[in-house]
Protein 1
Amino acid sequence: MSNVIERVVAHGLCCGCGICAGVAPCEMRMELTDEGVYEPTVPASCTDCGVCLVVCPFASRPSPPTQSPLGETLGCYVGHVADEAHRRQAASGGLTTALLAELLRSDEIDAVAAVRATGQHSPLFEVALLDTEEQVLGSASSRYYPVEFSGVLRQMRQRGGRFAVVALPCAARGLRLARKRFGWLAECLRFVIALTCGQNKSTRYTDHLAWMSGLRPAEVVEVDYRAEPAGRADDFVFVARDRSGGEGRPLPFVSSPVARVWSGRFYSLSSCMYCEDMFGEYADASVMDAWLPEFRADVRGTSIICVRQPALDEAMQRLREAGRVQIEPISRERAIESQRFNLRFKSVELAPRLEALRRQGVEVPTVRIRPRARPVSLMNRLQQFNQRLSARATPGSPVVSLALAVTRAVTRLHRLAMAVRRRLPGSKGDRQ
Ligand SMILES: Cc1cc2nc3c(=O)[nH]c(=O)nc-3n(C[C@H](O)[C@H](O)[C@H](O)COP(=O)(O)OP(=O)(O)OC[C@H]3O[C@@H](n4cnc5c(N)ncnc54)[C@H](O)[C@@H]3O)c2cc1C
Ligand code: SF4
Ligand code: SF4
Ligand code: SF4
């Protein structure tokens, strides 16, 4: 037997969720490393009990396996909250915080574990137990920033009660494994709501964006990654403020180089290169942006939610009947279609990356995607290079600027090649 340091962290597979440290019987702790990611530390007194491995999403596989990347669902809905201010603050349509607030209001839970701003530089965000509707609504929006759950798990155990957690798919998977292993968690953890996820970033991503916006990264204490865009929903704006109240230059996602930093996978967690879970298929509900042509034009944002628990379906109906949300059913296929781009990275393109890892003697416990001996695509190779290069880079470093320029050129060539390929006689469209 061994522990997560040898089996997970050493291979760059740790997503820093903190589930292991939250339930371990030993003095495991989560630390923010110099690379701006969370990692567990293991005490010298480790007894090899194996608990950390059993609950780790990158060491154990949940069962039963699901057939679809979306998992089993009871229903999917597309829409947004009715309250304009809430919708504008939320990441997309605000359905996540609306549902969590409804669970509190209807006394199905006592508190929500969600991400809130700290008002400090390091860390800028943390997971905390929120007891009131106001606190939950105040937690709205997406943070492309590492957060970990060990502290709230310990609090939940100590305090007792009924909780809902909002988490990325990797943490949701770890929570499911831990819920199965520990009776106390099965009893108090009522709902896990997963945010659909293409990747998360280290703290250096925020430093880089703060630097691009003209601020000194170490002085930044407030960040909004998704301020309301002017033109289309996916051109959301990054805004940062420093200790003296100074605001940096706003950076729209698509119409500034931010999109290149994002999709070039600069500052990405290394575990995200080997993650197959797009939707959080083992959570009680999955929420995502409605990245479909008919919803992109509405800059106020639209969410899709897919529920897997009758109680959550009922909560959505209550919200609709009370006029708190405007939702309509949407098919599972359309929900999956909304994530088409990132799904490719986590499915067909993932198989050769897993195979490369397997050849180095490292196995990732996946549910559907099997390692497959095929060449890793040029774009994926570049993204892997960028991820490794930026792990230790400081904002504005010349090597990152050069890599960004290369990524831009390769992306343009790639798009051109795909366009030509689509026009060739007998082409089935974008087949990559
Ligand atoms: C790192 C990351 C990657 C994402 N990738 C995609 C993607 O590829 N495709 C897609 O459609 N959607 C993605 N999302 C989800 C999307 O950004 C929205 O969160 C989702 O559409 C729900 O929007 P909403 O308006 O309903 O949420 P809101 O009502 O704004 O509520 C969001 C809730 O999520 C919590 N939260 C914020 N950041 C985090 C975090 N890092 N970890 C855990 N909880 C958090 C907040 O505290 C809040 O309670 C991602 C989100 C994150 C954080
Ligand atoms: S004592 Fe158990 S839970 Fe703690 S680090 Fe060792 S194997 Fe993991
Ligand atoms: S449980 Fe989470 S924090 Fe712990 S080793 Fe696994 S991925 Fe890392
Ligand atoms: S891509 Fe996977 S590992 Fe990375 S943050 Fe998202 S769910 Fe976690």
Note: The chain has two domains: 4-62, 63-432.
Protein 2
Amino acid sequence: MKKNLSVDEMVKRLLAGDRRAAARLITLVEDEMDEHHEVMRQIFPHTGQAMILGITGAGGSGKSSLTDHLIHRFRARGKRVGVVVVDPSSPFSGGAFLGDRIRLQSHSQDDGVYIRSLASRGYLGGLSRATYDVIRIMEAMGNEVIIVETLGAGQDEIDIIHIAHTCLLVLTPGMGDDIQAMKAGIMEIADILVLNKADLDGASTSLRHLQGVLSAARCDEGEWIPRVVSTVSVADKPENLKGIDELTAIIGEHQAHLRKTRTIEQLKFERVEQELGLIFKDELEKLIFKSLKGTGKKKEYIASILERKNDPYSVVGEVLRTYLPSRE
Ligand SMILES: Nc1nc2c(ncn2[C@@H]2O[C@H](COP(=O)(O)OP(=O)(O)OP(=O)(O)O)[C@@H](O)[C@H]2O)c(=O)[nH]1
Ligand SMILES: [Mg+2]
């Protein structure tokens, strides 16, 4: 594709399902190019309908292997699937990582699957914002299900629970202590707990642990009660795989619940609210630093803090008063 393709042309191709246009537009978003906002403006009417499925969990817990199976399930139903693999800690960038390439390569010949990794490389607007926009590009491309794989749960820069409609937390046997520690937050993090690697020692103890945590959790009337499912997502023989059908079914149940209780609308409202907060914060910061640029003021402010003449809050207050347009 020629480098100087206009935004209009790239968006037109994206809407027709063009993979190269998608790749170009995602890079544009990642690099926070000037055209980024225009791209979002143009594709926005074509977004908002996809099912966003979050898969989070510790490194190596089996997120990508599970994603691989889920892609097959959704494809079998004729759904087009987009996958975003977010790894805030990875030094790599662009395209898929080697590991995910290997695990997800069974889809490389399938036109109905589009996979992209996002690695941390100091996004100006933050990784969460980039993720929202990459999801939108995948939606505009025609994907009906978007799977977002992220490392960790709830404590990372990218908070999957703020993006996904259905959130899977992948655990492995022997994570008993972690489960205890997570007890309080577990209901907020996950709609479905997946105990993967159920072929390993200690799986039944961990499963009981998880069931215990869930049965002790309190839910409001009509609220979704998180479910637990044990899976084997990699095995020597296909017949030794386990729990994938059940997991797929529970995802379907959760989706149905969201629609039936109209929770989906509330979720979407909260997602937009959260995203607006992120954008305000980032744009304001950019605006202020732009105003300060070349004035030498930033250095002065920092020096005044280091010399204890000023504290950070007072500096921010003064900067806001000085550089924000007057509200009168
Ligand atoms: N025994 C066993 N091994 C599994 C199972 N599922 C995945 N694995 C293995 O666990 C390793 C990690 O699997 P991945 O699917 O890459 O896990 P991940 O959570 O995506 O890993 P990262 O993306 O690196 O955080 C691989 O070597 C898999 O073969 C399982 O059910 N049982
Ligand atoms: Mg992975």
Note: Residues 91-99 have pLDDT under 50 and may be disordered.
